[in-house]
Amino acid sequence: MVKKAPRRTAERILEITLELFNRFGEPNVSTTLISAELGISPGNLYYHYPAKDELINSLFDRYERALNELLNASDGVRDVEDAWFFMHSLFELIWQYRFLYRDLNDLLSKNRRLETHFQAVLKNKTRAVKALLDGMSRAGAVHIDSREVEATATSMVVVLTYWLSFEYVRDPRRALEPENAQSALLRGAQHVLNLLAPYLEQGQRLHLLKLVGAYNNHTDK
């Protein structure tokens, strides 16, 4: 039992750090604030995570593992309904670690490890979107020229990567607050999938419009 205590403390530190980073932005959260929020001494925090970058890297590692597992599900996407669920799931994960995307450029400029790993994240996202397009093409849900796949996949990844930044610019004071999560996620999924609209089979296009209509009804309430 004694051996488990440090792990529980380390886990709690990461939970509170993620909460604070998401709420205030990573640059605005010091290790002193984290230790105060936890009710522990700075020395205790330092024992588990000797530098702030170690907190960031540990949180990113968790995000990357969860992301890679989720991206593997792109192989099973066959229609708009599958794609909508897949994109919404991606945005839910991104929201859970939204500090990474809110402060992405700043984080990459200061953290070489994050810089190289995020390049891999972009490659994996692109690979997953291509797999999604391939699965939908084979199922007859989309009709897209092979010469357009790369550009379409890249555009979808750009929206996936920078959607929360766009939301933040639109409404800096409220966009990334928890109560706005659902509407932000739905908007993100809608705009990523709208990039497929020109290539969708007619019935699939109508189904996408139906899903978007349901989204609009949700946000109007």
Helix/strand layout:
Blueprint: H1 4-24, H2 31-38, H3 42-48, H4 52-71, H5 80-96, H6 98-102, H7 104-110, H8 112-138, H9 146-170, H10 181-194, H11 202-220
What does this molecule look like?
With 221 residues, the chain is mainly alpha-helical. It is built from eleven helices and no strands. α1 (4-24) packs across α2, α4 (52-71) packs parallel to α8 (112-138) and α5 (80-96) packs across α10. It starts with a helix and ends with a helix.
Strand content: under 5%
Average predicted local confidence, pLDDT:
90
Give helix % range. Answer: over 70%
Number of helices: 11
Fill in the keyword field for this structure:
about 220 residues, mainly alpha, 11 helices, about 75% helix
Quick overview of this protein structure:
With 221 residues, the chain is mostly helical. It has helices spanning 4-24, 31-38, 42-48, 52-71, 80-96, 98-102, 104-110, 112-138, 146-170, 181-194, 202-220.
